[in-house]
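Hi V.,

Quick status before I head out on leave. The structure for the redesign project is tokenized and pasted below; the design run finished overnight.
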């Protein structure tokens, strides 16, 4: 970026996993979007245990969809309060058939797909909780993203 060019943002990618930390990341993403008159794309990344359970049939797809939608409902309220446009998507953070499929790749691939100019994601402590997958992605995204990244 040339120092004489103003910094612009059209799309902020907020990466979430349903944790409280990712809800905080959404608040930051919405604030950035509000500041730059941008939109937010919230990406919900499913954890390894959920993906394996869905593949094995031990986790109910409807329960996962309902939980994800409840989280997105909260995200929508945050975006609506700031009058920020919001799009959402869900993706598997892991694959049993593709070794290169992990949360960091999913975040960067989605950032490219939605043409994100800015990425916000939580940098969570390692807790061992299956639902909180983004601590595995933060360092990777910070290292390899071509967009500015805010890790909260």
């Amino acid at each position: 970026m040339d120092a004489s060019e103003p910094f612009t943002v059209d799309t902020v990618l907020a990466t979430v996993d349903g944790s409280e930390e990712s809800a905080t990341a959404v608040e930051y993403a919405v604030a950035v979007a509000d500041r730059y008159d941008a939109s937010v794309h919230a990406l919900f990344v499913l954890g390894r245990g959920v993906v394996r359970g869905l593949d094995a049939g031990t986790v109910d797809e409807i329960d996962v969809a309902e939980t994800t939608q409840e989280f997105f409902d909260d995200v929508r309220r945050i975006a609506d309060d700031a009058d920020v446009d919001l799009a959402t998507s869900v993706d598997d953070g892991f694959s049993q058939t593709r070794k290169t499929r992990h949360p960091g790749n999913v975040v960067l691939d989605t950032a490219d797909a939605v043409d994100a100019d800015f990425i916000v994601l939580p940098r969570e402590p390692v807790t061992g909780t299956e639902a909180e997958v983004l601590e595995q992605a933060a360092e990777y995204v910070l290292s390899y993203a071509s967009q500015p990244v805010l890790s909260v």
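Above is the designed sequence. The two ends are 24 Å apart (CA to CA).

G. will cover questions while I'm gone.

Best,
W.
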